[in-house]
Structures are given as structure tokens and as C-alpha cells.
Write a structure and sequence with these properties.
This protein is α/β, with parallel strands linked by helices. The chain contains nine helices and ten strands. Helices cover 37% and strands 24% of the residues. Strand 9 and strand 10 form a beta hairpin. The two termini are 20 Å apart.
Length: 251
Amino acid sequence: MIELTNVTKNYGRVIAVDRLSLTVPRGEIFGFIGPNGAGKTTTIQMIAGLISPTAGSVKICGVDMAKDPSRAKKVIGFIPDRPYLYEKLTAIEFLKFTADLFGVDSAGFEKRAEEILALFSLGNWADEIIESFSHGMKQRLIMAAALLHEPEVIVVDEPMVGLDPSAIKMVKGLFKELAANNKTVFMSTHTLHIAEDLCHRIGVIHRGRLLALGTVAQLKEMARADHADLEELFMILTDSKTSGNPDLKEL
């Protein structure tokens, strides 16, 4: 699970994330949405341990990221919006590199790698150099690498970027299966219909602050918009005229 307590991140005078407190339990797919520059990616990077908060704490499965970052990171699978890969390696070599980083048992690596590559329709490309891959294939490979060590928490920034419809359908099914197996999925996305379809709860961040939090039904109640879809709710909740409304709070 993920626990953020009064997490703040400053860049000089700019407050990217402002006193964010949030708990995401096991078995939940949590959607994190907000305008560009709202603080989504900064939050994700702090959860993944890529950057440290200026104040507050991040705990992953009860482990404080600041006190024991290696242990906390071992239970996380991080999928960035842009895949960063060693493109002179083959797909299987990249997976072996990732497995070694996470201490995956070498005896079971070959079978696990074969399974995960097949899952992401990359089985026939195992021995191909990554630089020959399309963007969508690279995105699928980074997902495969992130799930190779069977993490408890999956942190995803824009998971569907560059994927074709069949891959999107597969990834949506995979996230649902992970949640059903008691894994936590934290995903940031601009694709609001996917968030509405997948997520158990959704948090709306605006100007570094958590503006709203709840199920889609709760967000509708909060915005007093019973018949709105998530895109309409997003516009209502983040509109400059309503973002300071004291009625907009966590349910």
C-alpha cells in the first residue's frame, strides 16, 4: 500500500506539491488526475523514490522511503510515461539486467522472462536489439520489466501512451487482474475515460493540492453534477472559479 503524509515538494519558491496526504490500500486501482503542471509527475517520482520530498513522508507497504529506500523500492514496479531503455541491449538482456537489480532468482529467470514477454506480445522479439523497437513496443517492454519481479505496488505515469487499441485492452485487463490479486496500482493519466473505467477511486490534484478524492459517484456528488462523466467533473472541479470552493473536499 501507499501512504503519503503531508508530502511537500518545493523547487525554490515554486511549490510543486503542497502538504499532500493520501492512502491507497492493497487491491485498489487509484487514478491521479489534474491539469498540466498540477504536481502529478512530481508526486509519482516521490512515490517511486526518484526524488525526495522537501517535507512529509512516503511509505510503501509500511516501509519509509527516506529511512530504507532500497527496501521500499524493491516492492515497486515503476512505469514512466517515456520509456528509458538501454537500446543497444536485446529485450531479454534488458530483462536480465532488471532482474539482477531486483535480486530475481536466476534459476527462475528464464521462465519468468518468457512468460512476461509473451504477456506483452514480445516473445518473438526477445533477442532483437531494443533500438529497432517501435515506441509502443518499448512501452510494452518497460511494463514487462516493471512487473518482472512481481512487485506489490505498481506506479504508472500515463500507461497507455503509444499503445494500440489491443495493447490498451490487454493493459487494462492486466491492471484489473493485479488489483484482484491484492496489488496496488497508482496511475496518473490524462485519458479520463480510461480512469473512469478502471479506477476504484480518483484523486484530483490542482496547483499542488489534492482538490478532490473519491469514487466517480462521490466526485459527482461533490461537484453537484449527477449526470456528468469524468471529463465534465474534471472541468468543474479544476475550474479556477471553483478550485477555492470550501465544499470541494475529500469525502
